[in-house]
Amino acid sequence: ETLEFFKDGTVSAVAKRMTLAGKYSFVDDDHLKLELWGVGALAGPLIMRVSISGGELRLTDPKGELSTYQRAK
Fold first, then answer.
1. CB-hemisphere CA count at 13 Å for 64?
2. How far apart are CA 2 and CA 68, in angstroms?
3. Which is higher by pLDDT, 7 or 14?
4. According to the model, what pLDDT value does residue 40 have?
5. Which residues neighbour 32 within 8 Å (Cβ) at sequence distance 6 or greater?
6. Residue 73 burial by Cβ neighbours in a 10 Å radius (0-12, 13-18, 19+)
7. What is the b/e burial string over 31-65, where b = at least 16 CB atoms within 10 angstroms of the residue's CB?
8. How far apart are CA 57 and CA 70, in angstroms?
9. Secondary structure of 30-72 in the HEC alphabet?
10. Is the pLDDT of residue 32 over 60?
């Protein structure tokens, strides 16, 4: 699974050979709002707790499930 964030506020998510597009914004210093479109996309916006340290991005969804991503080299 990969996430690619762009300066214009758009995001691309690739998981299990499926690509979703959408937009993102920071609600505050600790929360990220994701809105993804496409087959299998989330219904409505999702607000996740965000933590960025070094080259690691950690997103925690409202159910408490943690996803960790490493910065691409």
1. 0
2. 10
3. 7
4. 57
5. 24, 25, 26, 47, 48, 49, 50, 59
6. exposed
7. ebebbbeeeebeeeebebebeeeeeebebbeeeee
8. 6
9. CEEEEEEECCCCCCCCEEEEEEEECCEEEEECCCCCEEEEECC
10. yes
- Polymer length in residues for the chain: 73
Q: What is the pTM of this model?
A: 0.81
Burial of 4 (0-12, 13-18, 19+ CB in 10 A): exposed
Instruction: HSE, CB side, 13 Å, CA atoms: give it for residue 24.
Output: 21
Confidence band for 43, pLDDT divided at 50, 70 and 90: low
| Angle 52-55-58 from CA coordinates, rounded to 5° | 40
Q: What is the pLDDT of residue 45?
A: 86
